[in-house]
């Protein structure tokens, strides 16, 4: 049986708010596990996976959203029933890089790939980053992964590579890291060198 027309509709993007969205956390964990199982995505855990630890991980990220150091954006399928993907902005406070944000945990469900979900959540998180004055964004991904091909399509530029930087979740092989950055359009005009920290 094919996907219903509602599922095929454009994904709907939400900004995670713990009061309204806490019931989606087990789905965040399921999607995270699905990416490790189906793509060997290097994202915090290696197999064998303990689903409770992955749920706990997302509860901790939700606490960071509550504390204001993180923003998480997620997309639901057009019918609102399935989590299609998500991404986070880590906005750790420093006085020397108050305009730098780190893009983390971009994961799209294997059931919702190549339909613009990554682009939709990335555009949403960049709009939020810009509103909050986080106008220089950095991120890391695995060398040789599809994501390495995707980020330049979203306007990200490579800043360097680190070989043997992380452990593949199933084989335990060491994999290289590629770093990307993007300077959002308002960066030059927004940051005033005279502003005191
Ligand atoms: C990589 C990933 C996030 C892409 O998500 P997606 O929703 O399928 O991507 P989109 O449909 O929004 O595509 C965005 C752009 O990237 C390109 N793209 C997406 N997947 C690609 C792939 N496998 N190879 C090459 N380009 C790709 C698309 O063509 C599109 O560019 P275009 O609009 O200029 O044509 C998804 O495959 C995924 O979650 N993979 C496993 C987890 C992962 O690697 N996450 C990144 C961790 S840093």
From TrEMBL:
**Keywords from the named record:** Acyltransferase, Transferase
Q: Which GO terms describe its molecular function?
A: acyltransferase activity, transferring groups other than amino-acyl groups
The protein's superkingdom reads Eukaryota
Any matching Pfam family: Acetyltransf_1
- Write down the PROSITE patterns for this protein, in alphabetical order: GNAT
Q: Which SUPFAM superfamilies does UniProt cross-reference here? A: Acyl-CoA N-acyltransferases (Nat)
- Keyword Acyltransferase on this protein? yes
Domain called N-acetyltransferase: residue spans: 13-178
InterPro entries membership:
Acyl_CoA_acyltransferase (IPR016181), Bact_Acetyltransf (IPR050832), GNAT_dom (IPR000182)
Q: What is this protein called?
A: N-acetyltransferase domain-containing protein
Q: Which organism is it from?
A: Tricholomella constricta
| Higher taxonomy | Eukaryota, Fungi, Dikarya, Basidiomycota, Agaricomycotina
